[in-house]
Amino acid sequence: MDYTVQQKVWTVIWYGMHGQPKKVQIEYRKKFGRHAKTPTRHAIHNWWQKIFETGSVNKRPKTKTK
User: Fold this and answer.
1) Taking burial as the number of CB atoms within 10 A of a residue's CB, which of 10, 42, 44, 56 is the most buried?
2) What are the tens digits of pLDDT across the range 17-54?
């Protein structure tokens, strides 16, 4: 399942606030619904790392440079 940009950004914000994936998953369920598929600990950590490396949580196409 692909997550929307909004869901990814909220997850990164909550991870910055709480620092624990379990608390992030609880906040995620509160915001997006009890039966929403919550991201895994691994996905949360990857989005957190990616926001600092690229400045975005989206997949960016690789550009060819000469």
Assistant:
1) 44
2) 999 999 999 999 999 999 989 999 999 999 999 888 88
Alpha helices in 1-40, H assignment, sequence order: 5-18, 21-32
Indicate whether 61 belongs to any domain: no
Query: Looking at the 3D structure of the chain, how many domains does it have?
Result: 1
Furthest CA-CA distance within the chain: 49
Burial of 14 (0-12, 13-18, 19+ CB in 10 A): buried
pTM exceeds 0.85? no
Determine phi and psi for 20, rounding to 5 degrees.
-130, 125
Which domain covers residue 13, as residue numbers? 5-54
Residue 63 lies in a domain: no
Contact of 51 with 57, CB cutoff 8 Å: yes
